Fold this sequence. Notes:
- By secondary structure, the chain is α+β, with helices and mostly antiparallel strands.
- The chain has helices spanning 4-7, 52-58, 110-117, 138-144, 155-159, 166-173, and strands at residues 10-14, 27-34, 38-43, 47-51, 72-75, 79-88, 97-101, 104-107, 125-134, 148-152.
- Helix content is 21%, strand content 33%.
- Strands 1, 2, 3, 4, 5, 6, 7, 8, 9 and 10 form a ten-stranded mixed beta sheet that branches.
Amino acid sequence: MDTATNLKNQFLIAMPTMGDPNFEHTVTLICQQNDTVGAFGVTINRPISLTLGELFSQLNIEIKDETIMAIPAVVGGPVQPEQGFVLHDTKKSWESTMPITDNLAITSSRDILVDIAQGEGPEHFLLALGCAGWSPGQLEHELQENTWLTCPAENRIIFDLPYHQRWKGAADILGIDINLLSDVAGHA
């Protein structure tokens, strides 16, 4: 069975007892998944002290839109921490844009950064350094082990909710208090 339709555009919500410091109390958007390559996602709620102003300066990208200077980047995951990934709405496409839904995409090429710096980028965006990846079957195994909750992704959580509220906000989609959950799974 192709699992791409099951987890693409889903949030992975780390269970409260997650022992992996890379994912403790995180929300990760699954951007792509299939049986051949596994799953690829970006964590959306781990801001870092590096701002877009500092990052663009390091990349020699001139900033004309000063409103973006203080926006923090986030840790997108432990894989390829030197690579930038921009989650964004899809009013425009760039060189390496990969659609996730009709109104959400991810881009990893420099041209989107230049457009953001010039004030010509997407209306809503999140810049992540690094990503998360799972080999085929690995994520499904972790779900069976009760490591993650899943729910449909919502752009308002990615772009509008403050970072520190996203973990609880994603769980609220399911109507649960995530802090009351157990790490014991039941299997039929």
